[in-house]
């Protein structure tokens, strides 16, 4: 029986599409734009056995592996998201909410603005205030300890986008804003106790109508790059005031108007994983430099912060300091020194030295992070001052644990142990000692003569 021509055409087209997907799965010959928010490391292979089959881990591995390696997966997901957004005004990323004038907000900050976060932590306002007063008392003890070690302290209150632009919130969130602001209460307590701080929370609210550019980009959640020179200059002036150091000023060179919302200016749009970019107005990605640098001091800076320090960290701001370290969420280490960069604070053997070597300790946090106040940095700092340094045995154990926490690293250790004909534990210890000695050599080479 003769096949109808259109059936043959359909069969050929479907076969071609499936063949293209299969070819892409094996070769990845077409370079796709990677999806944002899907950067978790692929799990190591799971071998088929009775145990892995019956506990489901083998099936889970196959499902995840197939999902991650389906050809043109990125295109299909972006295409679906684009249709949902363009046709139904729906954002598939549940952490992003669209407000008026195409303004994008991160759900975490909306939860704080509407009191959802508050209810998750406190029974009532009195309990929240009592907790804040206790944290401020601990901060005063921290400042006293820092002063005894010759260090200054500065707290920077970084405002969130909903606090600065509540008028652009979606109607539901605008109508459910909380009456009590934990950030405002902390600012009040800091003033009463004369704790050095910068209140960008109220400052941004005061200048938002007169500032020449948006303080926050439409498609991002952190302060815009146009804001960074003003933030950097304010922080440097305040540090100079409280420390007596002579620090440089910020010189604004060029507006550099652009519609390229890279880095944090466009992070929310990027996380929507759309097929086509959103229409955006031109905003400045300013070029600035430090000026009045002759004869200035170059202190060492230690920052404990949330993600709002990121844009300062990648700007000329850090050039004002000899060494700088940032303990993000009091957990992940960013540093001007390569031997510290990218490490986990939990296993940073040199943490006591970093704290002892800092001339200035600065905290930078937004409102949601005040519910986990400074991520317990008060206790971290006091413990590090008390210890002074880790013993050799502690350093070895910490390094062994670092290796165990990294599956790929641990696999390499096991393979190496087999090749050497020694036990895994013995090989772990040998590698830990080698790493510590190598880091010490790097540290000695980095020290100024």
Tag the structure with descriptive keywords.
alpha/beta, six-stranded mixed sheet, 449 residues, 19 helices, globular, 3 domains
The description of the largest β-sheet is: 6 strands, mixed
Any idea what the radius of gyration is? 26 Å
Strand order of the largest sheet: 4-3-12-9-10-11
The count of β-strands is 12
Question: Averaged pLDDT, please?
Answer: 88
Helix amount, in percent? 40-55%
Backbone structural class: alpha/beta
Q: Which range does the strand content fall in?
A: 5-15%
Oligomer: single chain
* Shape, per Cα inertia axes: globular
Low-confidence blocks of residues: 443-449
Number of domains: 3
Distance N to C terminus: 90 Å
Tally of contiguous helical segments = 19
Explained architecture:
The chain is of the alpha/beta class. It folds into 3 domains: 5-88, no CATH class; 96-390, no CATH class; 395-446. The chain is 48% helix and 11% strand. It has helices spanning 5-27, 50-54, 57-68, 73-88, 107-113, 116-121, 125-148, 161-164, 171-174, 182-192, 200-207, 228-243, 267-272, 310-313, 351-357, 377-387, 392-404, 407-420, 424-446; strands at 96-98, 104-106, 152-157, 197-199, 249-254, 257-258, 283-284, 287-291, 301-305, 324-328, 332-335, 360-365. The strands form 4 sheets. The protein has a 6-stranded mixed beta sheet, sandwiched between helices. A two-stranded antiparallel sheet has the order 1-2. Strands 5-8 form a two-stranded antiparallel sheet. Helix 7 packs across helix 10 (182-192). The longest helix is centred in the first third of the chain and has 24 residues, at 125-148. The N and C termini lie far apart (90 Å). Residues 443-449 have low confidence and may be disordered.
